[in-house]
């Protein structure tokens, strides 16, 4: 398989190096196009008003991996990889392994998920991988699972391009409880902006959101309540796989508007 890999932690991050090298070790052809610095929480942003620069990077990844450093966002990186770097479409686009979880509503801001979504938009099954810890750096269990998941999807491919969001608990591989298919949970934060002064006495603000609530079992209009959320299952030490889509149409409200608003 030919695999394009990106991330939002930057090309020097341990997570992407572990993922790319592990994939190459298992015989996959790997191309990396990743930001030249950390681009966390950039969502699906694109660079439109100044040039994007890209350079071949050597000495960081295994010799079998072709790696490019890109000055743009995670979405820029995947677009550049698919449209300028590669001569043909890859079989999969992978993003990660992110340092920190992408669970619940966090995915709306995630550069990791957005990079994978860019591959799906282009018709390629894509997967975002995240290690659910901001401090632990044992990425190998997540990379090993990524290899197994790619093998399963190769043997049993989806009929159309699909986006999967995968979160791996930050524990020893033997302690992982298993794998669960999940739905998206909800996380809510207090938005705390800390006001500070720079050396010249000018004020600036630093966002320091505080997690105050995780709704483990929110109602869903289509899925059964006994289907666990990513937030819940990850707390129980399961690898979570949440299928996502980029079509944000509110089906319920469409039907309500069709019924109640028939004319101007």
How are the elements arranged and paired?
Layout: E1 2-6, H1 14-25, E2 29-35, E3 54-57, E4 66-70, H2 74-85, E5 92-99, H3 111-121, E6 126-131, H4 140-155, E7 163-168, E8 178-181, E9 186-190, E10 193-197, E11 203-207, E12 210-215, H5 230-235, E13 238-244, H6 251-260
Parallel strand pairs: 1-2, 1-5, 2-4, 5-6, 6-7, 8-13
Antiparallel strand pairs: 3-4, 7-13, 9-12, 10-11
Helix pairs in contact: 1-4, 2-3
Briefly note the CATH topology name of the largest domain. Stationary-phase Survival Protein Sure Homolog, Chain: A
Gyration radius, in Å: 19 Å
CATH architecture of the largest domain: 3-Layer(aba) Sandwich
Strand line-up across the major sheet: 3-4-2-1-5-6-7-13-8
In terms of quaternary structure, the protein is single chain
Low-pLDDT parts are none
Strand content is 25-35%
Q: Would you tell me the overall average pLDDT? A: 89
Order of helices and strands: EHEEEHEHEHEEEEEEHEH
Give the total of beta strands.
Answer: 13
CATH homologous superfamily descriptor of the largest domain: Survival protein SurE-like phosphatase/nucleotidase
Kindly state the percentage of residues in helix: 25-40%
Globally, the shape reads globular
Distance between the termini: 53 Å
- Give a quick account of the main beta sheet: strands, pairing sense, barrel closure: 9 strands, mixed
Number of domains: 2
